[in-house]
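Try this one yourself first.
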């Protein structure tokens, strides 16, 4: 089965990461600049054929989405095996668990933040959630090609399994009982975020060791999902790089 990726960053990352086969790259006949040259160089290095096409052909193949004059035909997205993801993580892994994210652009933006923060992987439920579509990959600026993403049958079962492996399960929700900076994120951690608008579902929330929140000024109900994920992820980066005092496991009962 063949998928299509579009946008300079998405196609460039697919060529450089090599996680799924790129069979052909299509470049708009009207584009000839330094950014496109990077794509041409990466395709040549990967041994992938390149064809020049009219811009209207790329418009049709991308379904009207903004393609920046670059489109690739690639193998269908493959997901990491959850057990492999857990086994290959380091001594103090940092995971992201998304419980019911429906917008592929949000998924892509979270993947970009997670990859930039050096997270070890992302877990998604198999049903009722966005997947690795071309829209998600483009929204991630290609980062979805860099970070392992696994699908699981049941998020609550996954969270329980993470706890048995001594990984702290830390929810992030507007109703959380402690600020996001109060927890020691240098520990093995899985950050759990709910879907757009509704936050964490009850069973997922109850399975978390602790639920944190990001305080906001009055009049603002909530943050965009990917913004909240980025804030929490880079708090973990700050702590792990020793750029500030570590939080405490306040209110947590332990894995």
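Now uncover the answer:
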């Amino acid at each position: 089965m063949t998928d299509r990726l579009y946008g300079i960053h998405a196609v460039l990352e697919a060529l450089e990461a090599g996680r799924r086969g790129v069979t052909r790259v299509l470049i708009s006949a009207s584009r000839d600049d330094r950014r496109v040259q990077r794509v041409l160089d990466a395709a040549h290095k990967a041994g992938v054929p390149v064809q020049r096409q009219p811009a209207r052909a790329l418009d049709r193949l991308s379904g009207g989405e903004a393609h920046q004059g670059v489109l690739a035909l690639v193998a269908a997205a493959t997901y990491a095996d959850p057990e492999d993801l857990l086994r290959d993580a380091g001594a103090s892994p940092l995971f992201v668990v998304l419980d019911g994210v429906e917008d592929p652009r949000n998924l892509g933006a979270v993947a970009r933040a997670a990859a930039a923060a050096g997270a070890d992987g992302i877990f998604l439920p198999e049903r009722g959630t966005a997947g690795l579509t071309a829209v998600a990959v483009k929204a991630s600026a290609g980062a979805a090609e860099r970070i392992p993403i696994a699908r699981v049958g049941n998020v609550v079962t996954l969270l329980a399994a993470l706890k048995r492996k001594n990984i702290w399960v830390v929810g992030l929700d507007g109703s959380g009982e402690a600020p996001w900076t109060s927890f020691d994120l240098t520990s093995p951690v899985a950050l759990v975020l709910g879907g757009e608008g509704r936050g964490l579902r009850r069973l997922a929330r109850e399975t978390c060791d602790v639920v944190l929140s990001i305080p906001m000024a009055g009049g603002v109900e909530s943050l965009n999902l990917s913004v909240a994920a980025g804030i929490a992820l880079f708090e973990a980066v700050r702590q792990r790089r020793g750029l500030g005092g570590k939080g405490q496991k306040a209110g947590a009962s332990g894995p």
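Discussion: The longest strand covers residues 22-28. Residues 169 and 190 are 5 Å apart (CA to CA).
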